[in-house]
Specification:
The chain is of the alpha+beta class. The chain is 51% helix and 10% strand. The strands form eight sheets. A five-stranded mixed beta sheet has the order 3-2-1-4-5, sandwiched between helices. Strands 6-7 form a two-stranded antiparallel ribbon. It has a two-stranded antiparallel ribbon with strand order 8-9.
Length: 459
């Protein structure tokens, strides 16, 4: 029977004892190396003096003397470098535990970057190469990588992944799975896979037809294999390693968003977390692939496009909340925010747990009680977990296009769509910049233009 305080002090004492023993062992090794080195140096000096005393003084003898001194200096430098490398390796073996992990309580003067080096990294550094040259090589690799634009990285990654692997590419737009090449809509991923394998076999010609590439390549890796050697690949990292080591091809993993798509609820193939909406799963991938970091709040994102959209949330808004004073950007965001202040409570029908949102209750019913609601579209029989998504689908896909343009034959579902279309015929530009007085037909075009003024002020 011993208290936790005494136990912690005993552990600290044993750790300190281990550290002292390791230091003594290292000191003995250093003395042995220096003793051998001094003995070798003294013997070499005696031999040189003996040879010099026997020889007559001449021009040739002077040359041989200078050469021997240079050889002596080079041999000394070589021994010193060998001792430094040996000491680093001894420190590394002592610092590492039985599992190969570095002991956090071990104190050493060697930098952490040296301690955490893997054997592959040690082999890659050629012996005798100066540290400055190694740093210059690393900086050169980063410069070459930064020279390649993001669009070229995406194009290169798409061509290599689609040609050399069996990954199925797709796009996702308004709750529809779209074909990567012809943008045809599909209800589920399985019919999309069959369509891609039957209609888009020649990848080279299909890539040449593409007009635009996405910011990130969305692929399904349920049946991921190499087309050349038929090797099964488990994930994107093994695919990248295999393509580099075996086929000498480089891909950029920051341009890839990988999924193992199944029916709803969709599950993350990394952490097995389930989502009822596929778009929520795509935003969840930002946690696993922190390629871009927001400098304001520190959140991570898959690519620069998602980071750019997120940075708009840090901009100053024009819609203040009357209750808490929080300023929001749009009317939709302020209406959603006001629901947090509402006294409306929605209870679960089984456990009577109180919730504020209708969508939260549906998610709770499916996760806690395994009860899912299926709302089917009466036209295309597509299913949705939330009734609001079904209404949006019917309005956007199967809506009545009775709002016709008076100038051309185009028709629209809503008055807002017709109003935006009429700007093409009238040439009206109602949105004017307050800085340079330029006018635009769309509000989002003006917002993008205003960011250019903000960037100039910052720079």
């Amino acid at each position: 029977m011993i208290c936790t305080l005494c136990m912690s002090q005993l552990r600290q004492a044993t750790a300190f004892k281990k550290q002292v023993l390791d230091a003594e062992r290292q000191l003995d090794l250093c003395f042995q190396d220096t003793g051998n080195a001094t003995k070798g140096i003294s013997s070499i000096k005696e031999n040189v003096k003996f040879e010099e005393s026997n020889k007559t003084v001449s021009a040739g003898n002077l040359k041989t003397k200078s050469v021997s001194e240079k050889n002596l200096e080079s041999s000394l430098k070589l021994k010193q470098t060998r001792n430094r490398i040996r000491n680093k390796r001894v420190f590394k073996t002592i610092a590492e535990s039985e599992n190969g992990e570095i002991d956090p309580g071990y104190d050493s003067d060697i930098p952490i970057s040296e301690l955490i080096k893997t054997p592959c990294q040690e082999k890659s550094v050629t012996p005798g190469k100066a540290e400055k040259d190694i740093k210059n090589d690393i900086i050169g690799v980063h410069k070459v990588r930064n020279r390649i634009s993001e669009r070229k990285r995406v194009i290169l990654t798409c061509s290599i992944v689609l040609k050399d692997t069996t990954a199925c590419p797709f796009r996702h737009h308004k709750s529809w799975f779209q074909c990567f090449f012809c943008l045809q809509d599909f209800m589920d991923i399985n019919t999309l896979k069959k369509h891609t394998s039957n209609n888009h076999k020649d990848i080279d010609t299909e890539l040449n037809k593409l007009k635009s590439y996405p910011r990130s390549l969305q692929i399904d890796i349920s049946n991921l294999k190499c087309r050349h050697c038929c090797l099964t690949l488990t994930d994107v990292n093994t695919m990248r390693r295999h393509l580099v080591e075996v086929h000498n091809k480089i891909i950029y993993t920051e341009c890839i968003a990988d999924y193992k798509v199944n029916s709803s609820p969709y599950s993350c193939h990394i952490c097995k977390r389930e989502f009822h909406v596929f778009r929520t799963l795509t935003t969840h991938l930002n946690e696993h692939y922190p390629n871009c970091i927001c400098d304001v709040c520190g959140k991570s994102f898959l690519n620069t496009k998602r980071l750019k959209v997120h940075k708009r949330t840090h901009e100053n808004g024009t819609y203040p909340c009357k209750k808490c004073g929080k300023v929001l950007k749009t009317k939709i965001s302020i209406t959603n925010h006001m629901e947090t202040h509402s006294k409306r409570i929605i209870k679960c029908q089984i456990c009577l747990k109180p919730m504020k949102h209708y969508n939260a209750r549906i998610k709770h019913m499916s996760e806690e009680h395994n009860i899912t609601y299926k709302f089917k579209c009466p036209i295309c029989y597509r299913e949705y977990n939330i009734k609001h998504y079904l209404a949006t689908h019917i309005r956007q896909t199967h809506g009545n296009k009775n709002k016709k343009c008076t100038e051309c034959d185009m028709a629209f579902i809503t008055n807002h769509g017709l109003k935006k279309h009429m700007l093409k015929h009238t040439g009206e530009k109602p949105y004017t910049c307050t800085v340079c007085c330029k006018s635009y037909a769309r509000s989002y075009t003006l917002r993008e233009h205003m960011r250019a003024h903000v960037d100039k002020k910052c720079t």
